[in-house]
Amino acid sequence: MSTDQVVRPPWVRVAAGTSARSREPAVQPRRVFAQVIAGALVVLLAVALLGVAASRRLAEAEAVNDAAKTANLLADAVAQPALSDALLTGEQSAVAAMDTLVREHVLGGSIVRVKIWDPSGRILYSDAPALIGQRFPLGSEEQDALVHRQTRANVSDLTAPENRLERDRGKLLEVYRPIWTPSGKPVLFEIYLQYDEVAARTGQLWKGFAGVTLTSLLLLVVLLMPILWRLLNQLKRSQVQREALLQRAVEASTEERRRIAGALHDGVVQELAATSFAVAGAAERAWSLDQPDLADDLRSAAGTVRTSIGALRSLLLDIYPPSLASAGLEAALTDLVSNLRSRGTAVTLQLAPQSGLDAAGERLVFRVARECLNNIAKHAAATAVQVRLEPEERHTVMEIIDDGVGFNAAERLAHPSEGHFGLRVLGDVAAAAGGELLLSSSPGFGTRWQLRIPHP
């Protein structure tokens, strides 16, 4: 057809495909267990990282506390008893006596440096002779320790100029507290300790923490596995039961449609038809009796009854199309296009031998095709129509193409004419059945419908 060669207007989505007709994905126990194990591993990793950080902080706090106790013990038992006022003036004998005492009783083990400061920031003594006599400003914490007679401990700032000789020893802890000369003058006693003890204690704390925490988490996962397995089995059974109930509901709905259609056709429709014939006969008799007014009224009543019969038969086709149920989808679509052919419209019907549709899918195709073909007959003024139905890998696709006058699809969907909601209703029908309905049309370019139905 010529409509295939022209540039088509863009597609407008009337109904997006839903999962109403497709089955919910089955629960896969392996996938669920894999997700649980992956989640447990993530939790274990997070706990491990937090545990390391917590252990390091706790170990550092304990190491600082132990270092403060060591500094207090050394200050009270060693440094203060040996401190003399002569050290304040830098006498060599006082410096030598302090050096001997420090090297014999203080240095060694984890203690790598000793310094004694006066309040002005001058180093009175250090086991590193190059520092003796040098002056560095005391920080606020050091001054606070002198004023309030407190012991302070923290990680050494090796970038500070007074710590330049300790930079090659790695990370250190420094502890300082005041001591007093025999005359009562305060000086600051400071020791530096290796940080290795903090790392060692961190490892010890982490091992204890990890042993309990990780074992508890693993035990929890192991205990959850049987419970999770049972829940998955129950969920799977519920899913099967739900699908069975849905299937029975669909079958019951189909049977009810068939029953209602049969009852209407064999009852009300037949009675209305008989009534129509009776009224028409009465009209003829009235005419023969020279009662033209009565005859006209009876003919009008007969026409009204026939119109009602036509509307009722259309409703029966909607409820349960007889050709679709008895002869199949191809025969039903052939019946639908016969109305257009009788008007002189050239209709091409291309149907694949196997559509891949179940009964619900065939009903959806029939209903959408009927609405589209009715719209073409009423509004399109088309000379040629093409109807195609063919299965694809995951969908069955129906296309209805005409070369009629076309319309602004996006505008019609957004702002339907008053009392005309055919497009929206058609979209709702397709969406409720799980189909995707697309529309391509614009004035002068005809109209193209595409219905995509997922395979059951």
Report on this model:
The structure is a single chain. The chain is an alpha+beta fold and 456 residues long. Among the domains are: 1-23 and 323-456, Histidine kinase-like ATPase, C-terminal domain (Heat Shock Protein 90), CATH 3.30.565.10; 83-194, Beta-Lactamase (2-Layer Sandwich), CATH 3.30.450.20. The protein contains ten helices and eleven strands. The chain has helices at 29-82, 92-105, 140-148, 196-288, 292-319, 322-326, 329-342, 359-380, 409-414, 422-432; strands spanning 12-15, 111-117, 123-126, 152-155, 172-180, 186-194, 346-351, 384-391, 395-402, 436-441, 447-454. Strands 1-10-11-9-8-7 form a six-stranded mixed β-sheet. A five-stranded antiparallel β-sheet has the order 3-2-6-5-4, sandwiched between helices. Strand 10 (436-441) and strand 11 form a beta hairpin. The model is unreliable at 1-5 and 19-24 (pLDDT under 50).
